[in-house]
Write a structure and sequence with these properties.
280 residues; alpha+beta; Phosphatase 2c, domain 1; 5-stranded antiparallel beta sheet; 7 helices; 30% helix; globular; binds zinc ion
Length: 280
């Protein structure tokens, strides 16, 4: 199984809060999120610590085929909790969190799980892309009734708006009627979007953090078939490079309003015909 992976921080000097990985039969993207500077989280650890530990434990749990992918995610959230229950306040609404896209190959099928705004794209033979992502977070943000217009990324006004958004989102996070992410509540895994497809119907699969899907879903500079074409012909590194190029033309976020000028970007791509290994 030959899997292509690219994962880069938004800025070279910053931690990469994404975690992208593959293991025999498994593909994974985790996109960590946390409180902005100056907002309490109740946790002594970094967001990248959370994403790496959740990701590593999830690869281990999902390798047990007796567990559904949602069960594997619930177990992994509990295991990360156990790593910092004695040092951190796991009941704090600002605790580090993550979105997840996960796929598992076995018995002639690909199973998938998506929690929150990571994106999983099934490139289906003869039918083109099926895009799986959970837009409940975007729906909640749309309901927040934020002021019209937008300010340059990095300005005091923009920073203040982001901070206020994060504080207001806390009361919707992992609540029914709100949005669901991996954090400290294992029951969030029940809210993930899950499904499976026969490998015989599949050309390829792509797993993307929202920093790597933005050329399509935020900037509208390409279509999903275009994005799959870039991955197929040039690989995930090229997708990230094109994303950085587009971001650099709009450093203030005035054309494409966004939280950060450049976000961590991760893409994992597997073409089914590269099923060379029996080790699935
Ligand atoms: Zn902690």
């Amino acid at each position: 199984m030959r899997v292509l992976i690219a994962s880069e921080p938004g800025r070279p000097e910053r931690d990469n809060e994404d975690f992208a990985a593959a293991a025999p039969g498994l593909l994974l993207v985790v996109d960590g999120a946390g409180a902005p500077a100056g907002v309490e989280s109740g946790c002594a650890h970094s967001v990248s610590w959370y994403a790496r530990n959740l990701g590593g434990l999830l690869l281990a749990a999902a390798s047990d085929v007796a567990l559904g992918l949602d069960e594997a995610l619930a177990v992994s959230i509990e295991r990360v909790n156990a790593l910092h229950a004695t040092t951190c306040d796991l009941g704090h609404p600002g605790s580090p969190s993550a979105t997840v896209a996960l796929a598992r190959v076995g018995d002639g099928r690909l199973e998938h799980l998506v929690l929150s705004d990571s994106v999983l794209v099934l490139d289906r033979l003869d039918r083109g892309p099926t895009v799986i992502t959970d837009d409940r977070l975007a729906e909640v943000i749309a309901r927040l009734d934020e002021p019209d217009g937008h300010s340059p990324v990095g300005s005091d006004e923009h920073t203040g708006l982001l901070r206020s958004r994060v504080e207001r989102l806390a009361s919707y996070r992992n609540q029914s009627g709100g949005f669901w992410v991996a954090s400290t509540k294992p029951e969030a895994a029940d809210q993930a979007l899950t499904g499976s497809i026969p490998l015989a119907e599949l050309d390829a699969v792509a797993l993307l953090s929202d920093g790597a899907s933005r050329l399509v879903d935020r900037f509208q500079l390409m279509t999903w078939p275009d994005l799959l074409g870039v991955l197929r012909k040039a690989g995930p590194g090229e997708l990230v490079a094109r994303t950085r190029e587009a971001e650099s033309t709009d450093p203030d976020g005035m054309r494409w309003p966004r939280g950060k000028a450049s976000d961590d970007a991760s893409a994992v791509y597997w073409a089914v015909q590269d099923l060379a290994s029996p080790n699935l």
